[in-house]
Specification:
The protein is of the alpha/beta class. The protein contains ten helices and twelve strands.
Length: about 300
């Protein structure tokens, strides 16, 4: 057993402040908090506001208020990615100095016709890998891409089992710093999880395909890899993931019914009687959390809440 496996459980919930907490976010929060409580571990809260153009004023405060109203309790201060830019810059510098990064002058429009892999990802064909053509070289804005190789990255998800991905053919070289200068999610989450000593990541299955990229980055940076558990994502009647971008409604004022709806969505055994308070719900729920009972599907229709 390695040191990471022996470490005390430390989980986290990491919402983006682009709007109010909605049912899809609640499902991920309930799963990660219940898993941490069941393990007798810690649960951290991180505001992932690295994509500053999408951040809405006051959204972080509204999310914190909603979590408190729903009975969530986190350990330590709230972490914010917007305050950690220097750490991301340091990781980028290490990767660049080791020869893992290169500048890319391609635009999103130019890459819209790249081939799509079996994962549904557009695979970057390496246009700028060995330098940009003259027309592109004159462009002022550049992204930084990470060189990938033919290595197959494998990990065992606690729900979906063994996962394998060959980055070269499944995603290609991927962006770590965007053309607008903002760091990409893939790098920020790897740096933050390591800095906070996160041992277990519980999140939506829409991020299952991103995990091999994060593990690849962890290996390049010499960082530990946490255990991963990806739970079903809630989708609307049109088959779209519930999100702020798709207009998902904010959670209703009644906290206990919302928690029970998320609990049932995750196919956990319901209480015989409705809890009187959010405190009663969590005192009951953490003893009955069963990963084995989770539905082994990437997405499910959201109920009305």
């Amino acid at each position: 057993m390695n040191a990471q496996a022996r470490a005390r459980y430390r989980g986290r919930f990491a919402p983006s402040p682009t709007g109010p907490l909605h049912f899809g976010s609640l499902v991920a929060a309930v799963a990660s908090f219940a898993d941490a409580l069941a393990a007798g571990g810690e649960w951290l809260l991180r505001i992932e506001d690295v994509d500053m153009p999408r951040t809405r004023p006051g959204a972080d405060a509204a999310i914190l208020a909603a979590l408190e109203r729903l009975g969530f309790e986190w350990n330590g201060p709230v972490s914010r990615q917007s305050e950690r830019t220097a750490h991301y810059d340091d990781a980028l510098a290490r990767l660049r100095d080791a020869g893992h990064l290169y500048e890319c002058a391609c635009t999103r429009a130019e890459r819209a016709r790249d081939p799509v892999s079996s994962l549904g990802e557009r695979v970057y064909p390496g246009i700028c890998r060995n330098g940009s053509a003259a027309a592109r070289a004159a462009r002022g804005q550049r992204a930084f891409r990470l060189r990938v190789d033919a290595t197959t990255v494998a990990f065992t998800d606690r729900l979906f089992g063994l996962q394998r991905q060959t980055l070269a053919t499944d995603v290609g070289d991927f962006v770590l710093r965007r053309r607008d200068g903002l760091v990409a999610y893939q790098l920020a989450v790897v740096v933050d999880d390591a800095a906070q000593g996160v041992t277990d990541v519980v999140r939506g299955a829409d991020l299952l395909a991103s995990t091999p990229r994060q593990i690849f980055l962890q290996q390049l940076l010499g960082l530990p890899s946490p255990r991963y558990l990806h739970v079903p994502v809630a989708i609307d009647v049109h088959g779209r993931k519930l999100s702020k971008a798709s207009g998902a409604a904010a959670l209703p004022a009644a906290a206990v019914p919302a928690l029970l709806a998320a609990w049932r969505f995750l196919e956990q055994s319901p209480p015989e009687e409705t809890p009187d308070s959010v405190g009663d719900f969590w005192r009951w729920a953490h003893r009955r959390w069963r990963v084995a009972d989770l539905p082994r599907v990437p997405m499910r229709a959201a109920p009305r809440v």
